[in-house]
Structure formats: C-alpha cells, structure tokens
Write a structure and sequence with these properties.
- By secondary structure, the protein is α+β, with helices and mostly antiparallel strands.
- The chain has two domains: 90 residues; 123 residues, Immunoglobulin-like (Sandwich), CATH 2.60.40.
- The chain contains two helices and 13 strands, in the order ααβββββββββββββ.
- A five-stranded antiparallel beta sheet has the order 6-3-9-1-13, with no helix packed on it. Strands 2, 4, 5, 7 and 8 form a five-stranded antiparallel beta sheet that branches. Strands 10-11-12 form a three-stranded antiparallel beta sheet.
- It is rod-shaped and about 100 Å long.
Length: 221
C-alpha cells in the first residue's frame, strides 16, 4: 500500500520539478540574451545605435517571466504544505468506523452495513444490492418504519451463494400507503483503512472503496 505522505510527495515533487526546469530554462535564456545584447552594444554602429526602447521592453519581458516562475515556485511550496497538513489531519481517522453519504459501500470480510432514512412510514420497502457491474446480487424486504433504519448485509446473495469482497450499491424502493413513491436517504458504514492524497485532494479507503473526505457524514467509533 502506498504511503499517503509519499503519494502527496510524489505529486508535489512533480510540480516542483517542472517549476525548477522552467526557472533553469528562463535563467539560461536570460543569460544568453544578455550576452547577445552586450555583443550588439560592443559592435553597434555609432551612427546608428540600437533602439534603447526596444532593449528596455525586452529586458522587462524577461523580468516579468522570471517573476511569474518565482511566483509558481512559492505557490508549489504552499500547496505542498497544505497537502501535507490535510493528510496529517486525516490520519487519526484510520481505524475508525464512519458513515458515508453514499449508497455505495465496501463488503469487507463478508460484512457491509447500509443505512437508510425514510421521511414517512412505508407500506413496503424493497432493498436491492447490485455489484460493480450493476448486476443484482441480493433483493429483499426492509423496514417500513419512518426515520433511520439499518441493513447489515453478510454478503449472501439471493441464490444462497457468497459474494466476493468489493464495492456494492444499495437501492431502496419504498412506497407509501397510497402507492406514491417515498425517497429515502441512503448511506453506508465502514472502517477506514488508509488515507490517500491525489491531485491535492485527500481521500480514504475502505476495502476497494475510495471516497473523498467530504463524503464522511459521521464518525460512529
């Protein structure tokens, strides 16, 4: 498993390397320009000297580009510090069980718990679990009580076989007494195994499921 700090460092090092190469190229071009300018000044025709306005504009242009590269260098340093701080702040979450605001969850060691909240009581609630390919692996009846409900799935499919660990999705179809549809709020639960950093954004992993930190809606333990 890749270290979260190492992952953040890889992205930061790439940006820093690009900026350093740009700075080196600008510096080389600037030195070459000064050498050419000095040679021109030494060999200019006294009766037709070089245009000082044009030389000044060229010097200003090089200075502006050099300043822009220096600004990027400082921004890369700030981003690196922010990314490292974000990762370090999230590391204490490893080993904790969290609630995820998503109807996707990770089946780990044959265990996966979903939660669903019904705004009103239903006359019938049907729970459908699908795999990563969209195939239905389990379907059964759920609670009809209004409020928060939970569904602990042991990985057993409707045909009695055992589903492999992986990412699964829960869909809840609930109907009111008058036959109208009820829209539930679905979430999943899992224990965070690692914190990762990618493109400046911290995320967590539960089994084969990866979600951004913003997906966490609660910490249960």
């Amino acid at each position: 498993m890749t270290s979260p700090i190492a992952a953040a460092g890889t992205s930061t090092n790439t940006n820093a390397s690009t900026t350093a190469n740009s700075a080196a190229q600008i510096s080389g071009d600037y030195n070459t320009f000064l050498k050419l300018l000095t040679t021109q000044l030494q060999n200019q025709d006294p009766q037709s000297p070089l245009d000082t306005n044009q030389m000044t504009q060229q010097l200003v242009s090089f200075s502006q580009v050099e300043q822009a590269v220096n600004t990027n260098t400082k921004l890369d340093a700030l981003i690196a510090l922010q990314s490292t701080d974000q990762t370090a702040s999230a590391l204490p979450l490893v080993g904790h069980t969290v609630q995820i605001a998503d109807n996707k969850g990770a089946l780990v060691n044959g265990q996966l718990t979903f939660g669903y909240k019904l705004p009103t009581p239903s006359s019938q609630t049907t729970l459908t679990v699908t795999d990563a390919s969209g195939n239905t692996v389990y379907q059964g009846l759920g609670n009809t009580t209004a409020g928060s409900n939970s569904f602990a799935w042991n990985g057993k499919e409707s045909d009695g076989s055992t589903a492999p660990d992986g990412v699964y999705t829960l869909n809840v179809a609930a109907q009111a007494a008058d036959g109208s549809a009820i829209t539930p709020t679905i979430s999943s639960y899992g224990t965070i195994e690692s914190i990762q950093m990618s493109n400046g954004t911290a995320s967590f992993a539960i089994g084969t499921l990866t979600e951004p930190l913003s997906a966490i809606s609660g910490i249960t333990s």
